[in-house]
Each structure stands twice: as structure tokens, then as C-alpha cells.
Design brief:
Blueprint (H helix, E strand, L loop, with lengths): L1 E2 L9 H5 L10 H17 L7 E7 L2 H12 L5 E6 L2 H12 L3 E6 L8 H10 L3 E7 L1 E2 L4 E2 L2 H10 L3 E5 L17 E7 L10 E7 H6 L11 H11 L10 H17 L1 H23 L14 E5 L8 H9 L3 E2 L10 E5 L6 H18 L8
Parallel strand pairs: 1-12, 3-4, 3-5, 5-8, 8-9
Antiparallel strand pairs: 2-10, 6-7, 9-10, 11-13
Helix pairs in contact: 2-9, 3-4, 5-6, 9-10, 10-12, 11-12
């Protein structure tokens, strides 16, 4: 089965094989594995030893987002969220239910957030301490320019939390060049092609030390995670970790390095995206984003206007041909989401395009343009 969703992604056999063994997470031999993982992902992010710390929680990217909001923004504190996609909307809910005040910057989900609009919103609201932004919106496939937005946040003397869950490992990032970032958030099961189950934050040590005691949640307190790591001396989890997923993640990091690291992974995903984008256009389907704004992680496509089309039967017809895509969408217009990430090649994508054409034909869909 070719898994074409934005995450969890298709993985290599070597990565899955590492899950087959049992481990004790606090065993002396495994301590070195976890310490190595923490250092390697910090280095991948362009972090600096002593200035940045890698912190982990069991769970998904939403857990990391809530933890970062709670940790770095005090109760009642004010944050700006550029809202140009479904995952920004989720950040709004996480912040609101954590008792933080959200200032919304509404934008369309077909182009990236405008740095000038962020600058204007910060100038209008001096009480905003943080900007919380999603780097890659997997509702539509749009990429927000973290470096350009970070520059205006830095110029305004504010802080930033960046959701890089579906971007880290493929899109470029340098924490050393973005001191306004309190935390960069990502997970194991996306562009680094590990198994799901681990959320990561790479955070500034000085900001962690300044944020102690304000999370209002023991489970979601990254400052407490950091203090526990210091007490343990080697970065131990506070509670039982998904240890098999950690072992697999180290293998995934090895494979990422062997491929050529972030630039090579971005090149492969970009090639995947181009094959898919061009292929569905050749079939007569309409991508949700223009080519200018299309990111490398996921291609979102308007559903055909033909009454013969329905998303679940289409997903089932594709699955029968060995291709599995999401059976839901996050845009206001009816769409379908097809991932370009994971252990997938451009040749795989050409096969997927052929399967899409066959599935549409089987369903009797003739009017392929959007409504």
C-alpha cells in the first residue's frame, strides 16, 4: 500500500524493523540513544548547544502546541495567530481553552501569511507577547515563510512559537538565525519519516528558565520537562516514553542523513509534488493552490463537480489500486488531500496519478473541473 497522506507517513523497512525489539527506556544502554536523538535534532534545526534544548512529550503535534503556548505565554497573556489554515484554527482553540487571549490575523488559505500584515497587527496591539504560526498548513498545502515573519516579529521585540510539525526535516530552518523563536515544534512521524508517537520542541534555554511555573499543567509544562532533564543528567523523559518509536526514530535520522539531509529530502518531496501536480492537471483536475503558492508537502485538489464523484468511494477505489489517501478535507471548498512526503519517490507518484485516473473512470466521473 502506497500511503499518501501528510502524516504519519510511509516509512522505510529499516525504520519499521527497529520497532520489533523491546527496550527499557531508563536502561543505561538506551540513555545514550535518547541523548543522541536530542542532540541530532537540535543540530538539524541549527540550534546551539547550551542555548537550545530538545524536549519531548509522548503524543502528537497538538500536544506540543498546547505545551508551548502554556509554557511560554502566561495565563491571560495575549498572542497573535495568523489564521490561513485549519491547523492555525486549532492553535486558536488550544490557546483559548488554555486561558490565553488570541488576537486573530485572518488570511486566505491559498497564499502565505504576509509579513507586513503581521508587523501591522503587532504595531496595533502592544500587549501581544507572541506570534504563534504554522509553517506548513496541511489543510491546503500552503507554506508560511517562517524566516520573513520571524524577522518582523524580532524587529517588533516580540517572541514566536513555530509549528513546524509537517515541515521540519524538509524545509530549511536555523534557530541560531532566529533568536525570536521560543520554540520550534515538530513530531517523529512526518518529514523525518519516523513512526508516530513523539512530539518534539527545540526551545531556548533562557526562555525555559524564565517561564517556570506558568504552564498550569504538569503534563504540558516544557519548563518542567527541561528541569527534569537537568536533574536526571541525561535528558530523561518524566513519564514512560514510546521507547520503540524512539529506537525507530534514530534509524530514521540515520536514513535522513544518508539521503543528504534537509536539502536532499526537500528536493525529493518537491519532485514528488511536481509529478503529482502536473499529473492531476493533465487528468483535468484542478489543484487548490496555484503553482506559485504550492508547497512540497501536500497537494490539495478540488473535488470534481460531477454528481458521480463522492470522496469516500473515490478513496476506496484508490485503495483497491494500492494507494491510500485521506478521506476528509480541511478546506471550506470540497477538496481531496494527497501527500507528497514519506518514503515515496517520483516514480511512486506517477503510479499514483495513473491510479487516480483509473479510479475516476471506474466511478464514471466525467466532469473533472471544480464546481
Amino acid at each position: 500500500m502506497l500511503l499518501l497522506i501528510p502524516g504519519p507517513v510511509q516509512t522505510r523497512p529499516e525504520t519499521r524493523a527497529a520497532m520489533a525489539l523491546d527496550y527499557a527506556p531508563w536502561d543505561n544502554d538506551f540513555r545514550a540513544v535518547y541523548a543522541e536523538i536530542r542532540e541530532r535534532v537540535r543540530d538539524l534545526a541549527g540550534g546551539v548547544a547550551g542555548e537550545h534544548a530538545t524536549l519531548c512529550l509522548q503524543g502528537c503535534g497538538h500536544f506540543m502546541m498546547e505545551a508551548a503556548i502554556r509554557t511560554f505565554i502566561p495565563a491571560g497573556g495575549k498572542l497573535l495567530v495568523p489564521r490561513n489554515g485549519a491547523y492555525a484554527e486549532r492553535a486558536v482553540r488550544l490557546a483559548t481553552e488554555a486561558g490565553r487571549e488570541v488576537v486573530s490575523l485572518h488570511a486566505v488559505d491559498t497564499e502565505g501569511v504576509a509579513p507586513a500584515a503581521v508587523a501591522a497587527a503587532l504595531a496595533a496591539e502592544p500587549g501581544i507577547s507572541h506570534v504563534v504560526m504554522v509553517q506548513n498548513e496541511t489543510g491546503s498545502g500552503i507554506v508560511n515563510d517562517a524566516q520573513a515573519v520571524g524577522a518582523v516579529v524580532r524587529a517588533a521585540g516580540r517572541r514566536m512559537i513555530l509549528d513546524s510539525v509537517s515541515a521540519f526535516g524538509a524545509l530549511p530552518m536555523s534557530l541560531a538565525e532566529q533568536p525570536e523563536l521560543d520554540a520550534l515544534l515538530f513530531t517523529s512521524g512526518k518529514c523525518l519519516e519516523g513512526l508516530p508517537g513523539i512530539g518534539f520542541a527545540i526551545a531556548r534555554v533562557d526562555r525555559l528558565e524564565a517561564s517556570q511555573g506558568q504552564a498550569g499543567s504538569w503534563s504540558f509544562d516544557l519548563a518542567d520537562v527541561y528541569q527534569h532533564a537537568l536533574r536526571a543528567g541525561w535528558g530523561s523523559f518524566r513519564f514512560t516514553p514510546p521507547v520503540q518509536a524512539l529506537a525507530a526514530f534514530r534509524v530514521a535520522l540515520d536514513l535522513h542523513a544518508q539521503e543528504g539531509g534537509q536539502p536532499a529530502r526537500l528536493a525529493r518531496y518537491t519532485a514528488n509534488m511536481r509529478v503529482l501536480y502536473d499529473g492531476v492537471q493533465a487528468l483535468g483536475l484542478t489543484p487548490y493552490l496555484t503553482r506559485q503558492h504550492q508547497g512540497p508537502v501536500i497537494v490539495t485538489i478540488h473535488q470534481p463537480a460531477d454528481p458521480a464523484f463522492a470522496l469516500q468511494p473515490f478513496v476506496d477505489a484508490l485503495k483497491a489500486r494500492g494507494v491510500l489517501i485521506s478521506n476528509f478535507y480541511n478546506t471550506k471548498a470540497p477538496t481531496m488531500r494527497i501527500g507528497c512526503v514519506g518514503a515515496v519517490t517520483p516514480e511512486d507518484m506517477r503510479g499514483a496519478v495513473a491510479a487516480i485516473g483509473e479510479a475516476l473512470q471506474e466511478l464514471g466521473v466525467r466532469q473533472l473541473a471544480a464546481a
